[in-house]
Specification:
Blueprint (H helix, E strand, L loop, with lengths): L2 E12 L2 E12 L3 E5 L6 H9 L6 E6 L2 E2 L5 H6 L2 E4 L11 H9 L5 H14 L1 H5 L10 H13 L5 E5 L7 H17 L3 E6 L2 H7 L2 E6 L2 E7 L7 H8 L14
Helix pairs in contact: 3-4, 3-6, 6-7
């Protein structure tokens, strides 16, 4: 498979706090890659660095072999990378349609944006039903659907999704993952997803990275890590044999 994204030993500092230290990962075209780790591990910082929200003080980030380090988020978005941030940031007083149109502004082509808007309402029929509703009145699951659709309006090749299950009921989370995996096929997307839960990523990911204490502690395919023991050890930092009762958030 063709490598789409290369994160090469990046380190990020907030003041005196090192948030990431020598983090490396790769994402191949068409893959679903998940980063798992506890709160404060550096997962969101990793995605923010890739999307241009923060600038590493060392290392490099390459998209299709081209360094994007230090570029503005708008420039990176035009290269085919879009971020769905944690927390379902919708424009609550704007309608569903108006929120989606904001995503289309990146393309700068009105006819293309109109076609993409129609496409989103085909891909997301629930959003089509709520087209004229203020986004702030949507349920949590519908808002998550909207921010994903808004990101897809930028026509990305690589979609970064930060904590898509945060604050949602398990049934809704399952629907969100079904939606993401469907988009992978129907919109030809490559996915890099941050999560706290290992249960879903073992079902849906091709490869997994465990991030703890600002460093990558483990990487492997979902098949290699299927029994969950290595993930629990890396997640909690326990020595071998000390993970039997450790539970990662479901």
């Amino acid at each position: 498979m063709t490598t789409l994204l290369e994160v090469d030993r990046i380190s990020v500092r907030y003041g005196n706090l090192v948030a990431l230290r020598d983090v490396s990962l790769t994402v191949a075209e068409g893959e679903v890659v998940c980063i798992i780790g506890p709160n404060g591990a550096g997962k969101s910082t990793t995605l923010a660095a890739i999307a241009g929200g923060v600038t590493p003080f060392s290392g490099d980030i390459r998209l299709q072999g081209e360094s994007i380090l230090g570029r503005q988020p708008e420039q990176i978005a035009r290269l085919g990378l879009s971020l769905v941030p944690e927390g379902r940031h919708v424009f609550g007083t704007l309608t569903v349609e108006e929120n989606l149109k904001i995503g289309g502004f990146v393309q700068g082509d009105r006819s293309t944006a109109r076609a993409d808007l129609d496409r989103m309402f085909t891909l997301f029929p629930r959003l089509a039903e709520r087209r004229t509703m203020p986004a702030g009145r949507l349920s949590g699951g519908e808002q998550q659907m909207l921010v994903v659709a808004r990101a897809v309006m930028t026509r990305p090749r690589l979609l970064l999704v930060d904590e898509p299950s945060l604050g949602l009921a398990p049934r809704i989370v399952d629907q969100i993952y079904e939606m993401l995996l469907d988009l992978r096929q129907r919109a030809n997307l490559t996915l890099l997803i941050n999560e706290q839960s290992s249960n879903r990523i073992l079902k849906h990911a091709d490869r997994i990275y465990v991030l703890r204490g600002a460093r990558i502690q483990l990487e492997g395919t979902a098949a290699e890590l299927q029994d969950g023991e290595a993930i629990r050890s890396a997640y909690f930092g326990f020595e071998d044999g000390a993970t039997a009762k450790a539970e990662i958030p479901a």
